[in-house]
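Why does residue order matter? Because the sequence determines the fold. Keep that principle in mind as you read this record.
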Amino acid sequence: MLVLSSSLIFGQENKDLRDNKNRAGDHENDPRLFHYDVGFYWLDLNLTNNSLNISGNTKIYLNLLPEYANQLVFDFKNNMTVDSVKINDIIVSFIHSNDLIIIDYIHQFDFNEDYNVVAQIFYHGTPSDGLFYRTNWYDVGIYEFVYSLTEPYSAKYWFPCKQVVSDKADSSYVYVTVPQNLKVGSNGLLKAEYNIGGGFKRMEWESSYPIAYYLISVAVGKYQDYSFNVYVPSYDTNIFVQNYIPDNSQYLSSNQWNINRTSEMLIMLSEKWGLYPHAGEKYGHCIVPLNGGMEHQTMTTLGNFDFRLVIHELSHSWFGDFVTCANWQDIWINEGFASYGEYLGEEFIQPEGYEDGWLEECQNLAKQRPQGSVYVPFWSLNDVGRIFDYRLTYKKGACLVHMIRYIINDDDVFFSALREFLQIYGNSNATGEDLKHVLENYTGIDLNDFFTQWYYGEGYPLYEVTWGQAGNSLLINMSQSTTAEVTPLFTIPMDFKIVYEDNSFEIIRKSVDNNLMNYEIPVSQNVVDVIPNPRKAVLADITIGQDSDMFLTNRNKMFIYPNPANEFLHLRFSDEDANLIEIYDGNGQIAKRIKSEFNTINISDLDQGIYLVKVYFSNSVVNEKLTVIK
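Structure:
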């Protein structure tokens, strides 16, 4: 899901969700919902494109679990009218209260298999959310649309369901009766389209893939069908792409080139993440007056064919649809990776360098949330705006994916690990912890600190880097603070690009395990520049400067570093060894006396303050002021 607007949005429909973003209780589930498993949704509805009135019925095929206690419960808003309920074709009594349908049903067995309990709920009404009516001008006239947007909590506003994201149905049908001049797009394949008389027709969409409740969709409008096949060479497979677009030739001619770019995206993403997960059915788009898009499985609801928008929603086919977050706290599994799909599009499809601009924009937006975690706190689950925070969930989430790629430092391994994750959790649900474990097992890299600091933690690092050269040693001092107190240290490794006077360079990676890091790097020629984070992979702000005086006390005698220091002080001598090293505190008292053979001094026991380091050579004494910080 992605929404584009000047205010940088919350979720799928900028206004429709903002107006209702604090619907207390919508994320809460009645415990009786966990007493059965949904196998199949079958929606049979009557709709049009100029009214939100809806009528019809929903069948829910389910298995009862051992916890079942003689009451079936479904989510459905109170403002909708339930006309009747059947269980296995027998009319039963029910209560519709507190946005729940409650049915007393005694089953003959403790639990059952093969989804042989079927609840059929007949209803009508005008949904207050989840279903939208909009109009828009498309080239030659005004077009009217009715379409669904239900992520995360709005499916129950327009059809009875079990609104638990971790319980995917094994398959779904959406049958819709509409006026003859309209079309309705939905999930799966269009199995039948036929007139039923009286100026109406019936369109029957069927999907055999597992699907989360919020990905079931409808879009009704005056559409034309622009479809084509995409051949994916790496899998020797054709993918059917079906686009429902406004029914006029001008729209098609104006957008055809952009629509056709879906082919490039399907091929590239299939190469990186594995074959498009729903290749046995289709991928497609339904155009509606939406300022963004929503990744309805196999048929995205889309506002326009902007490159980044299209590839974002297509990326959800892998991350969001195929593998769905196990709970809304882990929405990063959906949105962080779909956002990173935009980067891959810029990197592998668009002209060279486009990905750099995308990454800079992404990081700048992420930095606008100097506090807050990518992981959504439990107490924020009622706030749809927090779940779909554009800067945290989407942009910082994408930065996390890019930094994982940076840490692994091998694209073949990175993409193979993601394919492994998708294979393990495909057609199911996963958490951030599930992804972490797969990545660790596949790569052998410990990612515990990374997830603690970047996923559950807050903010980003601020680095101050100074460097100087003494003979054949390059000395780099890097101090770190952060934008959020809750995460005082980020231990992600740091790359340094070292540029020499002959314009050659090398990139050296150094570990980070402290807020003050000091590196001594052997070099064979003069260094003219040191560039930390040269590929801009780490989300950070960095200030850098060359400061030889920071390291060199007497060029002919010695240099000491770092300065300031907190744990260890290093001394290097140019032409002769020292006889004695003394450190005096601010009162002139000796704090340490060290024999000359010790060139690394542990100063962790010194209090914070200003000290004097006195080094005795055979014919001279060199003094240097030292600052100790804690």
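The chain has eleven helices and 38 strands.
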